[in-house]
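User: For a benchmark we're assembling, each entry needs the component sequences followed by a predicted structure for the full assembly. Here are entry 17's components. Please fill in the structure.
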Amino acid sequence: MEELKEKLKVQLIAQLNLEDITPEDINSSDPLFGEGLGLDSIDALEIIVLLQKEYGIKIEDTKKGKEIFQSIDTLAAYITENRK
Amino acid sequence: MPPHYFASMNNPVIRKYVSVDKRSVKVNGTDLLLNEQGADFGEFMKQIYHACSISYLKFFKMDPQSKLGFVAAKILLQDDDRDRFEPEEKAIVLANSASSLNTDEKYFESINDIPSPAVFVYTLPNIVAGEICIHHNLKGENTFFIQEEFDIQFMVSYLNILFSTTNTRKAIAGWVEVDLDDNYRAFLMDVEKEGSSEIQGNFTVDFIHQIFKL
Amino acid sequence: MTGPLKHPINITGTGVVAPIGDNTSTCFHSLVQGKTGIGRIMHLDTVHREVFPVGEVKHSNASLLSLAGIDERRGRNLTRATLMAVIAVKEAIAEAGLTDVELRDCALVSATSVGGMDKTEQCYRNPDYTSLDYVYTHPCGDTADSICALLGINGYRTTLSTACSSGANALMHAALLIRNGIADRVIAGGVDPLCRFTLNGFNSLMILDKEHCRPFDSSRNGLNLGEGAGFLVLESDRSVKSRGAKVLCRLAGFSNTNDAYHQTASSPNGEGAYLAMTQALESAGLEPGQIGYINVHGTGTQNNDLSEGIAIRRVFGEKVPPFSSTKSLTGHALGAAAALEAVFSVLALTNDTLLPQIGFNAPVEETGLIPVTGATKTGLSHVLSNSFGFGGNNSTLIFSKQDGTLL
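Assistant: Structure for entry 17:
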């Protein structure tokens, strides 16, 4: 799980063009949206693309994304449960 | 349009102008930053970003055209007093010849795989205007024209129309283009309806011809 | 602001091709009947054919070519956008009664978001397609050039592209040309074809509804894409007098603003929309209470309908005029949407009819706004049309009867 979390941080930084942010800057339990990383609705859609591309997970309902994308912790838990 | 149609109606002035291309960043015709190492587009934009002490994370998510327009506008408005005019009195009128072709192609390629929403949103030429509006809180008229080359006559006439028939008192006007070969040029002017204390020149076709070439 | 226009902008002709009809009269019939043009994809070649309903113009390109009355040899290199635009422009010219000589010095302002994209998609990197002709038809400006070449229009010509408000901005630009004495007659409007480019893009934004869209409904879940062309003939008083033209109505007010909030999302308080509506009212010299019908932008997305509803409440308070989203019947035609809806607004005004929308059950909780759901005959003097685009580009047009409150 920890390995997945670290991998996710690297993938998020690349997919979302998070300049000047390193994996160490992201705390696994911190909220991804709102303050902090400054992510917005388009970033949420890009995370959906990331999940589909890298983990074969398809999210059809954007509302569901809100719960899954709360933090690296929740994202990793969801991937572990649903990956193909 | 007739050349001097509006000559008598207003006397708009150019407060400042900025030009960015692959060689340099120029402010009022004077070099601000040179691309001495011949850095590629992305690298040069980053250098400008840091040189101008910009802190705006969204910048790195923008497509090339928006990045180019954004840095040019940032330098243009850096020393401007934001509160001199109401947001809705500030307009932006841009033009280029390739629309958003550079990003269109990038997005087009992604359709065969999983289309990227973050790329798709930039497949419109007016998004660069939107990004500038968001950052500088401009809420006036915003228009994007597609022209074969920068039509200075047209721009002068169009802004004069805005100044004389709408509540516009300030306008960011110019050319922003990143084409398929990564040739790029931004030329933005800060134009005001009435004379301001420090000006570069009058907003006339002849003067713009001079400064656009620099 | 400058107050009411001293030089009225007369509308003397309208033309339209839409998923609900090939001309103004069939469109009006569909609008009044609430007959939808949204359904299964028939002509666009896409993997999403069975997934997303769209508002498609019910013709193949070959069939559009014959509708446009263009010789097959000349039509070979025309895009779907040009074909639809020529049909709409021809209808508008015919209604205005412009002669070939009068047409020659007309200006043309055309708006689009994807231009010749549908043809490019068929040809680009296609090993079976060896010609490079699509390189010439791809740019946004090709449609305007082709219309002018085919119909013998030689005046000022320009193309603008500001996402989903493009069509409204074309009409505004036309009005400015007339108001400032640069042109006496302008044909202005917008066109956009359905293509994979936009279908996939809006799908990636996850704002396409797999069901028929339900604008301003609490259960709304996204938009359906559409296509079409709408063009209007706008004229100065001088032009109208000199040719004795019949005036349908006037473009009495307009405004374009920026929401300055987000590239794709509308602001929570609908600031850009609010500014566009209030400034358009001011430019027409009208009070909110004088508007008899609003053709809302109403895409059916969560975000737009909430934000637009809040802006409408801010402008009109408790006395919101009857309104509807005709996108419930046509889908969202992007760069053409505002032009289609300008034609529909003129039809509503000149026929004194409130246009109904379909797919409505329960109002959005936050605004409580209830659209018109049945066609109603009523006296109309002023109709307002909203069109908002990505990049925060917001536009409002106001159409008024000739004997309205104008100077």
